[in-house]
Fold:
Amino acid sequence: MLAGIILTMVTDIVLHAMGVFSPWGEPNGDGPLLLATAYRTIYGVLASYIIARLAPDRPMLHALVGGFIALS
Structure:
């Protein structure tokens, strides 16, 4: 989960610096929010894959638990 969190934070910072997102504290339009949803979904899948690969047994259960914790 840490990989997904770090990737998301770095991507957010880069997109703010590039001007894709509005300045911090200001609302974004629909386009940037759709972009954020897309890359955060990809990063979540990647984090679940990493969790499953590191699981000693029952990788699907570990990935699902990691996903549940991330949604909480």
Summary: The helical segments are 2-18, 30-54, 59-71. The two ends are 13 Å apart (CA to CA). The mean pLDDT is 89. The chain is about 75% helix and 0% strand.
